[in-house]
Amino acid sequence: MYKPKSAGLRIGIGNGLPSYTSSPTYHGRRVPFRLTVRNALLLTASLCFLLLVWNMRGAASAPSSSSSSSSSSSSSLYVPGKELPRYWSITGKDDLEGVVAWQKPKDFRVVGLVFFGRPISVSILDCYLKRNLARNGGFLDEVVWLARTEVEEDLRWLDKLVAGEKAYTRRDLQFEGIDYATAYDVAENGTMYIKMDDDLVFIEDHAIATLVQHKLEHPENFVVAANVVNQPSLSWMHYRFDAIKPYFPELTPPSKEDLAKQGTWRASQLPMWSGPEDYTIDRDEKLEPPFQGHRWLPLPDDFPIERTPIETTSFDAFSQGLWHWQVAAQEHYSFFEHLENNDLWRYKFHTLDYHFMRMGIQMIAIWGDDIIASDIHNGNGDDEYHFTEVMTKRTGRHAVVDGRAIVSHYTFLPQRSGLESTDILERYRAYAAENICPGKMAWPVSQFLQQ
Fold first, then answer.
1. What is 98-451's CATH number?
2. Three-state secondary structure readout of 126-144
3. I want to staple 409 with a disulfide (CB 3.0 to 4.6 A). Which of 86, 108, 360, 362 is the partner?
């Protein structure tokens, strides 16, 4: 039986006011509740809890601070026609920001190697390369354009581009099919090379510095790659990190009002997707593009991501992420969303070791000494296979990705026709023209050649 140990004021718990007529029950009997020291402490704790719940309700009914701060920071970050400040993507959210306060080493040169073939994408890449030149505060002492085309107008465009920048040089290649071996004849001992595809359409400010530092600090790695958006095995990683958002292709041409937004890059300006409730995309076949210039539109956040193309990816260089353009389209539109919200940290990780598996080389750091010693001319001409599988197994040195260095890769050959039916490339162009090189883009070709 309960026996109160001391007398005191009885408290009615129900309305929070003193009461002399009611008291809590114990084992079915009504017993008095007296204000002892212990009970006073319990009452104080209860009141604090109620205040906490009340404040939480208020916070829930208002816009979330993280959402509003993210919106505020992104809106203040992007000013149309004003070039972004260097290292604009640094948020301080974690330890995966990349290298931003490291002085460029002076005892060796850093040279970009770019396989040139398409002005339509190179005109975007050019903006990022100039931003990354050593004379502009970046790490590239020189950019060598490796001409792999015989289209005269495109070569004239390249010549004009090179003539306007002292750090640019052109080298012509003897090439046949997919044999890339001759591209590396320019390699010199003691030089670090940043090999790049010509359809990189976004490079985070510190990406190159991060690769250079990683290569210096970890000579045991034969090659270090960037964290590439639209690269088959990394697509699977980004999916697992919840960086990929649910998107479907619009099924009918947009209205004139929506059409006016086709050239913009902001995902927030896209309408929500609408279509049949049972709409699906065959996981085993390439999607037939709905119409030329179509967009991909967002689905509700709670839409099952497993019903979208990204679900077909796997950690494999030849997964569906390579063959099916619809996977790439979903990745690119997800990236625009994260770009606008300035939360690229969602893609990042420290180091991913491929352990002698094939790794993408859309952007890599490699020493000239290693290129020369690799004897690539005695391989099959496939540089990706040679550097990431043959040479890693031969030397016991690994091929790794530094997940802090974000770049975006437009397309692989099997994806090209599908992606060219979208407005994705023009969205990357709009982003660069607004934020990276306003008023300086070498595009369109005919206009640039007449300047």
1. 3.90.550.10
2. HHHHHHCEHHHCCCECEEE
3. 362
Which of 299, 300, 287, 291 lies closest to 329, judged by CA?
Answer: 287
CA 29, 33, 37, 41 torsion-angle sign = positive
Q: What is the residue type of 379?
A: G
Residue 56 buriedness (CB in 10 A; 0-12 / 13-18 / 19+): exposed
- The two three-digit tokens of residue 404, written as one number: 């802090």
Mean pLDDT for the chain overall: 85
Note whether 407 and 363 are within 8 A (CB): yes
Q: How far is CA 436 from CA 119, 245, 431, in A?
A: 17, 25, 7
Residue 174 near residue 147, CB atoms below 8 Å: no
Alpha-helical runs (H) found in 232-324: 232-240, 256-259, 320-323
Low-confidence ranges of the chain (pLDDT < 70): 1-76, 175-178, 261-263
Distances (CA, A) of 324 to 165, 318, 359: 37, 11, 19
Q: Which candidate, 449, 447, 433, places its Cα nearest to that of 126?
A: 433
Structure tokens of 289? 């593009």
Cα(180)–Cα(173) distance, integer angstroms: 9
Structure token pair of residue 347:
């893609």
Question: What number of other Cβ atoms are within 10 A of residue 302's Cβ?
Answer: 7
In the structure, how many helices (H) and strands (E) does the chain have? 15, 13
The alpha carbons of the chain give a radius of gyration, in whole angstroms, of 29
What lies within 8 Å, CB to CB, of 68 at 6+ separation is none
d(CA 271, CA 251): 13
**DSSP helix/strand/coil, 345:** helix
pTM for this predicted structure: 0.82
Domain locations along the chain? 1-50, 98-451
Can the peptide bond before residue 4 be classed as cis, meaning omega within 30 degrees of 0?
Answer: no
pLDDT at 101: 85
Using CA atoms, how far apart are residues 192 and 210, in angstroms rounded to an integer?
Answer: 13
